[in-house]
Amino acid sequence: MPAYAGAAVYRDASITIDGTEYANQLTKARLVPDTPIQTVRTLVPDGAVVDVDSTTWTLELSGFQSIAVTGSGLADALSDAAQGEHLDVVLTPKKGAGLRKKTFTIVAVPVEFGGEQGNFMTFDATFPVVGEPVDGTAV
């Protein structure tokens, strides 16, 4: 059997948040589903009741902080946004016409500031997604 031809390396991605491109400031941008499943086994050998709840989504971001006095980076934009403000996001794992993209809205939360001596100042944050991401095709 030949190798899977659809495999892709995650690079040359695009992520816009409220219309601004931030891919050059991020090291990770990942949509993560959470689908709660509960199973209850009854006293009989084949007795099981399973419930699959609605999926919720989060966006995981990792990237650079900015130390500029005037907000110029994504970390600043996220921290300066009103907590709870909705921000529109378009995530395209690989640039190119005809490739997949996801469009969705996140809820703004502030990101960390500072770091460890001698290391790049970075942040890791998780943002709730409002509703379901919408599949699309990049142009």
Task: Describe the protein in words.
This protein has 139 residues and is mostly beta strands. The chain has 1 helix and 9 strands; from the N terminus they run ββββββαβββ. It has a single domain, classed as Elongation Factor Tu (Ef-tu), domain 3 (Beta Barrel), CATH 2.40.30. The strands form 2 sheets. It has a 7-stranded antiparallel β-sheet with strand order 2-1-7-8-9-6-3, with no helix packed on it.
List the helices and strands and how they pair.
Blueprint: E1 14-17, E2 20-21, E3 26-34, E4 37-41, E5 48-52, E6 56-64, H1 74-80, E7 86-92, E8 100-107, E9 122-137
- Describe the largest sheet: 7 strands, antiparallel
The string of secondary-structure elements, in order, is: EEEEEEHEEE
- Oligomerization: single chain
**What characteristic shape results from the CA principal axes?**
globular
**How far apart, in Å, are the first and last alpha carbons?**
33 Å
CATH topology: Elongation Factor Tu (Ef-tu), domain 3
Helix content: under 10%
Kindly report the average pLDDT value. Answer: 92
Number of domains: 1
> Rg, please?
19 Å
Strand order of the largest sheet: 2-1-7-8-9-6-3
**Which structural category do the helix and sheet elements fall into?**
mainly beta
Keywords:
Elongation Factor Tu (Ef-tu), domain 3, 139 residues, 9 strands, mainly beta
Describe what is shown at a glance.
The protein is mostly beta strands. The protein has one helix at residues 74-80, and strands at 14-17, 20-21, 26-34, 37-41, 48-52, 56-64, 86-92, 100-107, 122-137.
